[in-house]
From TrEMBL:
PROSITE patterns: CYTOCHROME_P450 (PS00086). It is found in: Endoplasmic reticulum membrane; Microsome membrane. May be involved in the metabolism of insect hormones and in the breakdown of synthetic insecticides. Its cofactor is heme. It comes from the Eukaryota. It comes from Hermetia illucens (Black soldier fly). One of its GO terms (cellular component) is endoplasmic reticulum membrane. Keywords: Endoplasmic reticulum, Heme, Iron, Membrane, Metal-binding, Microsome, Monooxygenase, Oxidoreductase, Transmembrane, Transmembrane helix. This is Cytochrome P450.
Amino acid sequence: MLGTFVFLVITVLCTIIWNLVISLRRPHNYPPGPKWIPWVGNTHQIQQLAKELGGSHLAYEHLSREYKSPVIGLKLGHDYVVVALGYEMVREIHTREEFQARPDNFFIRLRTMGTRLGITCTDGPLWSEHRSFTTRHLRQAGYARQPMELQVQTELMDLIDYIKSLKSKPTWPASFLAPSVINVLWTLATGKRIPRDDKRLSNLLTMLEKRSKAFDVAGGLLSQLPWLRFIIPEKSGYNLIQNFNMELHKMFMEIINEHKLNYCEENSADDLVYAYIKESKSREGRPDNTFTDVQLTMTILDIFIAGSQTTSNTLNIALMMMLVRPDIQDKIINEIDTHFPRPNVPKYQEKSLLPYVEAYLMEVQRFFSIAPTTGPRRALKTTTLGSYTVPENATILIGLRSVHMDAKHWGDPEVFRPERFLSEEGNIISNEYFMPFGQGKRRCLGDYLARTCLYTFFVGIMQNFRLKLPDNESVPSTNLLPGLTMSPKPYKVSFVPR
C-alpha cells in the first residue's frame, strides 16, 4: 500500500516537473523576446508594460526596439504569440496564405457566444462561404452602391438635426455618433433602423464601450488565464461579455423571427437576413447546411461590432482635432465653402472636390491608428517570418501602428500633417504604407462603408457648424485610451451653427 502511494506521488511530481519544463521551453529559432514564467508566460510583463506605456501596442513596439527585431516571440498563457511589426513583416502576414486563419481560443469563442461561427473569427470553408455570401447579398441590398449612399445621407440629416437640437450646448460627441454609423449597415443587414432613443441600443453601446476598454486584441487576461472567470467574473470582464451576449442574442432573434414571419420569395433580396432565410430554406435537410439561426446571429453580431466603434471613434477624433488644430479647421471650412457649399449634400463619390478634407481624414487614421494592433491570425503550419520560425497554430498579432509611424518612410510621423497626402498640385497621393483597413483576403469587410460614413458625416457637420472649445474647458488630449480599439478621452465641444 505504501509503495503504491509513493509511486503515485512520484508520478504526480514527475508530471508537474515535465509540464514545467514544457511550459518554459522556447521553440527552436523562435523570434526574440523576454523570458517567460511557467503557465502564465509573458502575460504579467505585457500587462505591466502596457500600463506604463499606454497600451499593449506600445509594449510590443518597445520590445521590438529592445530586441532589435521586427518580429517578437511571446507566450501569453499557454499560447505562443508572435507579433509582426514594420511594413515588410506586416505585409507578409496580410498576404501569405498560411497566415489567413483565426485562433481558436477561449476569448474568441466567448465573443461569439461559445461558438466559432460568424465571419470575423472563423476561417476555412465556413469563412470563405459565408464571407462571400454576406458580401454578395449586402451588395444586392445596396452596399457600396447608391442605396447605401442615400442611407448615409439620411443618417447625416438625422445627425445634423440632433446636433442642432443641442443649441450649441457643450457636449461629448461620442454620446451620439455611434447610432448614425450603425444604422447604415444595420439597415442593409436587417432592413430597418434602430431609433436613436431605443434604450436597447444605448444599453448595448454602453456595454460595447466597456468591453472595448476591458480587453485588447489578444483578449486580455481572460483569454490568457480563462480560469479567472471563476474567481473574479466581474473584474475579468467575463460577466460583461455574458450580459452583452444575452442582450444581443435577444435583440437579434427578435429581428430574425420577425423576418421569418414576413418572409416570401419576393423580399428575399431586400436585406441580408431575408437572404439567409432563403438560403437556409433551400438547404433544409442537408447535413452540410451551415445557414442556421446561430450562424446568422453571429454574422449580425460581427456586423454590429464592426460598425459600432471603429468608424464612430475615428469621426470623434476627427472632430476633436478641430479643437486641437483650429488652423486646420479654418482650412477645411474654407475648402468646403469654396468647392462644396450648402445646400449641396456630401457624397463620397465626389470626394475629389475636397482633397484637403480627404487628406485630413487620411492623416487622422494614420496618426491615431485606432486599431494599432490588428488580427489576431493563426499560423496554419510551421513556417518562417523574416529569419525566424513560427510554430503551427501560433497566434499572430499585426502591429499596424508601427507601419503608420515608421520614421524611415514618413519622415516626421509624430507630426500631424495632412499635407503629406497631397501632391504639389493639391491632389491626393496614394501610399502603400497607409493601410487602416488592412490588406489581402482579410481586409476589412466594411472599409467602403467606413470611408463613406467618415467623409459624409464629417463634411456634413463642417458644412453646418464651427466647432468651438467651451469656456473653462481644456484642449482635448491627443493621447488616446487603449483597448480593443483606441478612443479619445472624454472632452466637450460646442457645435455653433454657421
